[in-house]
Amino acid sequence: MTDETTIPLNTLSRLFHVAVFEHDDTRITQQTLEMSAEYLRMFIREAVLRANETRISRAHDGEDSVVTEQPVSDVLDTKDLDEIAGMMVLDF
């Protein structure tokens, strides 16, 4: 694994227990947590990359500057993530 930020396994375990598992006595193995964390890391990284491509593409097409009459920001916005959300879910 690289120096990229990882999702803490305790946080992921808690998320599974609070939001996913229907029974309190459901258990998850360490290996499954590690694989789930890696999957989510890849999903998030791909979403950010795709959203950034969308933002750059929109800036080159002049959409943002025409609508807002301001320079295009270097910050990803929810509309950038919204635009790629459907394809991300289908691809993953």
Structure, explained:
The chain has one domain. Helix 2 crosses helix 4. The chain is built from four helices and no strands. Helices cover 70% and strands 0% of the residues. The protein has 92 residues and is an all-alpha fold.
Briefly characterize the structure.
Keywords: DNA damage, DNA repair, DNA-binding, Nucleus. With 92 residues, the protein is mostly helical.
What secondary-structure arrangement, pairings included, does this model have?
Elements: H1 9-20, H2 30-61, H3 63-68, H4 78-91
Helix pairs in contact: 2-4
Number of strands: 0
Total domain count: 1
What is the structural class?
mainly alpha
Average pLDDT, to the nearest integer?
84
Strand content: under 5%
InterPro entries: CENP-X (IPR018552), Histone-fold (IPR009072)
Pfam families: CENP-X
Family: Belongs to the CENP-X/MHF2 family.
Subcellular location: Nucleus
Supply the key terms.
Centromere protein X, mainly alpha, about 90 residues, single chain, DNA damage
